[in-house]
Design brief:
The chain is an alpha+beta fold. The protein has 5 domains: 2-81, Orthogonal Bundle (Arc Repressor Mutant, subunit A); 84-154, Nucleic acid-binding proteins (OB fold (Dihydrolipoamide Acetyltransferase, E2P)), CATH 2.40.50.140; 159-227, OB fold (Dihydrolipoamide Acetyltransferase, E2P) (Beta Barrel), CATH 2.40.50; 255-486 and 573-606, no CATH class; 648-763, OB fold (Dihydrolipoamide Acetyltransferase, E2P). Helices cover 33% and strands 27% of the residues. The strands form 10 sheets. The protein has a 5-stranded mixed β-barrel with strand order 3-4-5-7-6. Strand 1 (69-71) and strand 2 form a beta hairpin. The longest helix has 41 residues, at 604-644. The protein starts with a helix and ends with a helix. 33% of the residues are buried.
Amino acid sequence: MGKKKKQLQHEIATSEDRIKLKENILLLINSETYVAMKKNEIAQFMDIEEKQLVDLEKALNELIEEGFIAKSKKGRYVSSSITKIVRGKFRSSGRGFGFVLPDEKDEDVFVSGTNANGAMNDDIVLAKVTKESITYTDGRAKKKREGEIYKIVSRGTKQIVGSFQKSKNFAFVLPDNKRFDSDIYIPIKYVGDAKDGDKVVVEITVWPKNEKRAEGKIVKVLGNYKETGVDVLSVIYSFGIPVEFPPEAIKQAEEIQQGVTNNDIADRRDIRSQRLVTIDGEDAKDLDDAVSIQILDNGLYRLGVHIADVSNYVRENTPLDDEAFNRGTSVYFADRVVPMLPEKLSNGICSLNQQVDRLAFSVTMDIDGAGNVVGHEIFESVINVKHRMTYNDVYNILENDSPELIEKYGDYCDDFRLMKELSFILKSRRDERGSIDFDFPEARIILDEDGKPIEIRKREMTIANKIIEEFMLLCNETVAERFEWLDVPFVYRIHEEPDVDKIANFLKYAITVGVDAGKLSGTQNIHPKMFGKILRQIKGTEREKIISTMLLRSLKKARYSDKNAGHFGLSSKSYCHFTSPIRRYPDLQIHRIMKEHIHGMLDEDRMNYYKSILFERTNHCSEREVSAEEAEREVEDIKKAEYMKEFIGDVFDGIISGVTSFGMFVELDNTVEGLIRVDNMNDDYYVYDEVHLKLTGERKGKIFQIGNKIKVVLVSVNISEKQIDFCIYDEEAPDKINLEKQKYIPRIQRKNLASKRKRKNKKI
């Protein structure tokens, strides 16, 4: 066993050394003073001994293979950027062409279908830039690049989900993901048990090349597309979300004792007698966090946030840990949850269930009347949750003074009132410093026993939800600030400042629709407080939707990072995710680092170890988060389309939520969104204004833009395409609408207007 451990340590060390060597090479080659060198010159410059030359050559070759550097004909190594080679992810449009999204912050590279050279969606590629141009819009320069893919570094997708179709001599699969723009040929010997109409998982065996399409073999049959649950299962496999846990991970979970022993609580603070409660949704089973509150003699609030101590059970470099990292996050669908940890842990020993002892990681914060944390403590604890509260129950206690609930929970109702009081203080403090709060409603989809949607409504955010939100935000911020001050390797949740150009465009647009932006439009010093003022100004008005949407599009996406860049949206200098280790791997990673610090184990070796792994780990977790969000959104769209299928021909009130050149999106009160195609707007010829995001009729001057109320008729639903089509309801039309005519009316009626418009443009 000792020999095996030493061998593993050696392999880890070797891997870390190679990563470090590659990092140092890149620092050298990308430095401003670097002059193209040969291998021996690099070795001499970096003080690399002769016995390490083999490692140097391997590192250089790997960097070439990965597209970070290039080697000239004379054997000199240079940065890829000098040779106009771009390394990045290929994103197919599904219509032949695509774009390379560079690893470095730079403009995307357009790649035509003839220059894709077999690249498929999500492949990591090297593209050679063949054409560059600069265009000017409103005096601002914008670079455009075109190129061709000359090398595929790694394939992004090895398995694809699609619909199986079979003929006598061959078969093929039509991918569900429309970014894969051609079908996959399946030789008869690789068909297996698949039948026509089945949803299948196909493994690519031959990659596309020149005009030849990809080939594959069926590795899993998910079932006929009409069967219950197959739609969701197809999405799960499409996004590479693991469904089953590896046997070794299950075995490890089964061996974990489902109770707290005396040995477990040794050296922990025993706070089982304190008044702790959990507050979650009615259907929640993985309870991460419990809270407690009291008023101290000096008038301060003492808020306790107690988080499930998952790291006590999921140890580093074990099968459970490896699988948790691979998944990155739990994924929540309308009909199921795909957990990050086996249910034995997520719903069992790690879940803070009521009236049982549980191990926790506690943060207590002493807070003054202005919402400032004037003192805090972080410690390992053993807790016993007194009540498992729901959002509805807490809401009814606080807002409706429910006699039954007040009698049931007695003195705890005073705690809830105190929590409400403190949450208002914390929210006011966040508003004052400039935290941005969007109010976009989420959908709650109710399914029957067969997985069929029977109701869709907005998910309500009550005072109970907001209490927990404020407490978790404060706890995460307190932890991040503490470890930023300690200057140890850490996992931050960052939200970088937006691009100045995007904000300038947003402010310009906001002013054109009547928002008082004051002096903001000319500023270069972007602060979130300015946007908070705008959002409060438009709250409850018809402009709220359009301005909020435009602002959200102007901001960057939050992500995980090993470097602290602050959180712009929260107007916070330091922020992290600490409060949900059952369902998020970054939180679990943070817990380990915090524990090692508390126990004095974070020595130089461990510090260097974390420095070597956290960059890769934070990137992976960010990617898994994006995949989970996209998968959840896709299932939601499927269920919404399935639900709306029953209402074709019905009239609805909606709000225009988006405007494009091909039509406008309309959102109903239940959050369902559909498209009115411009081809079906037959009363005029509508011109698209890209700057102001509106459609204007040339003849009648009628304007459609985001935020406008509109009455629509549901004309068609395509569940497999997740497409919902509306048309504008005409109050003067007959009660019975001819849906077939409404679907695809050509623009012939507007031919004369179109010709007139073209002539006008020529004169200009």
